[in-house]
């Protein structure tokens, strides 16, 4: 970024998605001299049958832009606008059918091309994926243009929270089974049986399935039967979700499937203590605050069940959900019994967020990254 004696050059950056992540983490930072616009682009998977599973693969159609900023995306063809992409796990995002396909090779070449100026990993966990899914030579080249930058707007509250019973618990995860919701539901039943003063609100549905959902035939009916122990909401708006998190004492996210964990950042931003499964980038985000739940870990810090199939996976799923239910209940019980401990954790959560996610610093850093991508002078 130019020094104080220079005028900041105005630039127009196209946000390549309508996603919550883009508006919350980048446009909301308002870096100096940057005008964000909704980029006109054609999602390739709507026009090229081979790429139906090539998520976030775009053809940009907007000549106004100095730079295009995608989220988990790749520019496949089209207007010669320089671009950067932020990513939370694999890049490019393809399913197993395309592991050796021409499509994958083409998209990797686009990532290596001069038009792709930067790869912005949302976490160190995300950067670790480069070596896992690319050959050594390709991974080394991609790392040369990779930086780690999470970015987040400032704290939403000014003070940590105190605990007045009942302990209010939030769970936000659309795919309830994949997000470990069964474990929290079991803990909710136990809390009801033992008269533990907690109020649990869960946003999600046992009917929304993903590729890593625990066997639906084993757990969906159990989840449905346990929903009576919580306040169950299938879906909330972004504003209502934030309000739920802000008015809760803790966020419980015992995920079996996770990448970054945006909702964890939302909780920390609001001094809501995160209680998360220790997978993917979750421990990295929580840092020294919150509570990290032990969970069987496999490759790339993912839940070990993802590396297994059949009965082995079913056995690990049972072990995992049993363990998570026990540790969630124990964590909630400890907080109910020790309000001072809760107050310490809430304070540590807000301090950790302030320390690591200063909005002024993030705004300057984002502008610096854009200047680097456009070969402009930097401070």
Describe the structure.
- This protein has 379 residues and is α/β, with parallel strands linked by helices.
- The chain folds into 2 domains: 11-153 and 357-373, 3-Layer(aba) Sandwich (Rossmann fold), CATH 3.40.50; 167-356, Glycogen Phosphorylase B (Rossmann fold).
- The protein has 12 helices and 15 strands.
- Helix 5 (181-194) runs parallel beside helix 6 (216-226).
- The longest helix is centred in the last third of the chain and has 28 residues, at 310-337.
- The model is unreliable at 19-23 and 45-55 (pLDDT under 50).
Question: SSE layout and pairings?
Answer:
Elements: E1 11-15, H1 20-25, E2 34-38, E3 41-43, E4 57-60, E5 67-71, E6 74-75, E7 83-87, H2 102-112, E8 116-121, H3 124-133, H4 136-144, E9 146-148, E10 167-175, H5 181-194, E11 198-205, H6 216-226, E12 231-233, H7 238-246, E13 250-253, H8 262-269, E14 273-277, H9 282-286, E15 291-293, H10 310-337, H11 339-356, H12 359-373
Parallel strand pairs: 1-2, 1-5, 4-6, 5-7, 7-8, 8-9, 10-11, 10-13, 11-12, 13-14, 14-15
Antiparallel strand pairs: 3-4
Tag the structure with descriptive keywords.
single chain, 379 residues, alpha/beta, Rossmann fold, 2 domains, six-stranded parallel sheet, 15 strands, globular
Per CATH, the architecture of the largest domain is 3-Layer(aba) Sandwich
* SS-derived structural category: alpha/beta
Q: Biggest β-sheet, characterized?
A: 6 strands, parallel
Query: Looking at the chains present, what oligomeric state does this protein adopt?
Result: single chain
